[in-house]
Amino acid sequence: MLASSFFFWERSTNTFHTPQGMITPTLLDVAAIAGLRPTGSSFTFDRPVKKEIKLDYNHLTYKSFILRNHDKTSANVSDSEHVAFLLFWLSAFFLCSKSLQVPQKFVLLAQLLHEGTDVCLGKVLLGELYLSLSQAITSLQKPSGAEKNILFAGPLWFLQLWLNAIFETKLSTPSPQNVSTSIAAFRLNCLTPSKDKVDPETTFREFFTAFMEMTSFTPNLAPFAAPTTGPKWLVRPFPCESPGEQLESISIWREFFRPQVLPLGFKKSEVNVLGYQPQLVARQFGLCQIVPIPLFSKKDAICNEGFCDKDVDSFYEALNYYDKKTSALRLEPLSFEPSFYCTKEFEVWWSTYYKSIQTTLGVCIGKMTEALQSVQKKATKKTRGMLIKEIQSFQRFFKTVYLPGRLNLTLSEAAEVLKEKVKAKVLKIKLFPPFVDKYVYTLRHYCPKFPAFPTSDMALALPVIYPKWLDHFTYKCFIQSLLPLPKRVTSTKYFLHNYPGHIHVNSCHVQVLTQIHQG
Q: 153: domain range?
C-alpha cells in the first residue's frame, strides 16, 4: 500500500495527484488520528531551554541507552530519565529515525517537551512525513547506476493509518469492535493488512489501481470532514455554546485552514521549510473545491529545499514572510453540512493537467522493479544485513538488541533468552523417552517458533556458535538424527573383536593398518 502511493506523490505541492484532484494528509487528519493539536509554537533548532540536562551518550543502541540512563537507586523518575525516555520515544516510535540507535539531534525537542513547553508536535509530525515522502521519491528516481539507500525512514506509520482511513472499504480486515474512540489511530491500526497473509505484488497492483480509479471525489476520501472520533476539542459541535470553547475551536480550525510553511530541521545544518496548502484539498474539509491559488507566487519560491549554514537568516525570513502573508485569515463560525463538489473550472483545469502526466500500472511496476534491482546490485554486505523486518522480529523474540558489529554479544544474550524459553517448554512436558536428553527432546518435538534471522553476518555466525548451556556433543547427535538415513552417521553397539555374529566384508573395504609378519 505504501509503495503504490509513492508513485502519486508530488513534492512541489506535498500532495498525491489522482484523476479527481489532489489529496494529502492534513493537520485535521493529524488531530483526528493522533490527537495532536495544530496550535502551539513552531519548533526550531535554536529554541532556548530553561536547564540543559546531560545524558549518557556512550552507548546509543536502544537497550543500552535506556539501561545506562536508568537510575536504579531511586524509585522516582528523575529529570534525566524522563528526557532519556522522550528521546527514545521520539527516535523509535514517533519520528522513526533511520538508525537503530538514538540520535542526539532530537535532544532539544525532548528537553522542551520535558519542560512542558507548548510545542506544536502536530506540525512537526506532518512536516517530517512530507519530507520523508519527498526523500523516498527522490531516491527511487535516481539513475539505475547511482548509489541509493533503500531504507525509507520517517513517520510512515502515520501515512499507513491515513491510507487505512481512505481505503477502509477496500480492506479485507474486519472493522474492530470495542476499541477506544479517544483517537482514530486505535481503530485504524487494527485495519492494517497482515504482511503474512497478503502477496506484496498483488497488493501493490490492487492499491495502485485504486489510486488510478479515483475519478470522482467520494466521502471516503474525507473521513474526518465531520469528525466523530478524536479529542473533545475536535468533536465538539461547531459553533460552540461556551465562549471559551468557541475561541479555542476557532483558533484550532483556523490552523487547519491556514496555508503556511512548516519549519523543519533539528540542527543548524538541516534547517528546512515545507509548504502546507489546505486550499489544494478543500474537499477533504467538506468544502467546495475551486481552482486554488498557490501559497508560492512563483516556481522559484517553492519551499522544498533545505538551507545551508549561511542561509539561516533566509530560513527565518521565509517563516516571517509567509506567516504575515496568511495571518490576516479570518474565520467566522457557521453551521454547514460537508459537501464534496468542485467547480467546472477546476474540473477542466485539473483534467487538462492530469492527462499530460497520466501513466500505467505496467510502467510503474517496471520502474519499481528496476529501482530495486539496481539497489540490490549496489548493496554492500552491511546494507544487505539491514533488513528491518527481520531485525525487529529477532529483537522481539529474543528480547535483545541486534548489534551487527558485536555479534558474539548479541548471540550470547539471545542464547540466555532461548534457554528460558526452552526451560518453560521442558516444565510443561511430563514424560520423556528413556535415555534421551530432555533439552534435545524439547528442541526436536516442542521447539519454539523461531523468527527469520537477519540475512547478515549473523546468518553465518549462528550455526557455529552454540549456547553454553547446550552440550556440544549432544547437539551434534541431535543434528545427525534429523538427517535422512543414507546420510546419517550412527554408532554401533559392538566392536569388531566382540561381534557375536559373522561379518561379511569385501576385500576392497579392508585396509591393513599393521603389517602382519609371516611365520
A: 2-47+119-364
